[in-house]
Amino acid sequence: MFEITIGIDPNIAQVGPFLLTWHGLFTALAILAALPIAHHELRRRGLELPNFDTFAFFTVIGGIIGARLFYVLDHPELFADDPLRVLAVQEGGLAIYGAVFGGFVTVFLLSRIYGQPFGVLADSIIPGLLLAQAIGRIGCVINGDAWGGPCTCLACSGARAAVPGGGGLGYCPFAFTYTHPDAIIPHDLLGVPTHPYPVYDIAVNLLVLAVVWRLRGRSLPSGALFALAAVLYAVGRFFISFVRQERVWFWGLQQAQVVAIVAGLAALIALIWLLRRPSPVTTPAA
């Protein structure tokens, strides 16, 4: 096991009231990477959106609002002393499931408003969304807002002794050790080797993307590709969350795991229904 020490300042620069952070930078890069993929997939499926910019803008806004809402609900103690900090999304603190939920609801509403097929929209968005999530997690690696629990391997034992209550969460293939005082990771984990949780999440996103990319040319009911991706990601997210150190909701499960179960079951039911109902399938161009 080897450690990667991350002592980078989460903030890149500040000009007046504008604060540029690594998390904000990679979030912007993630959005820029996802939009052309979504646009290409829509055209490949024969859907020309004359108002693509409107869809893209409001979907991004909806995703950011959902991501921030989920994070604040899971970490209310971080905002108790400074409620206005809730608005400082560029600092980090965006929950991926919140982003998916917010974007999902936004796309559904826009599809109803503009009379567009929701299933085709969802299938076209999912490849770019998965890539965006992977890119966005790079910002989490730097600022520590998606931290893993402390490792229990022998090489980590000295640092782990400083963690209140001791303990740990198993062997790490490698560990992140955050040292910058402004990192979002809890201060009792500063200097402690922790599971590289964002890397695990990047791997899950890229693996699901590989499956989606391979199946995107197949004849599937509209919406089935999105539902399948949701099921696969939920399974992966559930298991990698065991190495996190988050607030337990119930049954020994964390928020992300509870959401993964609910979202995964809902997506599985939707996938089975889509595959079994007699309806025309979409056959995208190669």
Automatic annotation (TrEMBL):
Its EC number is 2.5.1.145. It comes from Thermalbibacter longus. It is a multi-pass membrane protein. Belongs to the Lgt family. A 1,2-diacyl-sn-glycero-3-phospho-(1'-sn-glycerol) binds at residue 137. Pathway: Protein modification; lipoprotein biosynthesis (diacylglyceryl transfer). Catalyzes the transfer of the diacylglyceryl group from phosphatidylglycerol to the sulfhydryl group of the N-terminal cysteine of a prolipoprotein, the first step in the formation of mature lipoproteins. GO terms for cellular component: plasma membrane. GO terms for molecular function: phosphatidylglycerol-prolipoprotein diacylglyceryl transferase activity. This is Phosphatidylglycerol--prolipoprotein diacylglyceryl transferase. The gene is lgt. GO terms for biological process: lipoprotein biosynthetic process. The chain crosses the membrane at residues 12-35, 55-73, 94-114, 222-243, 255-275.
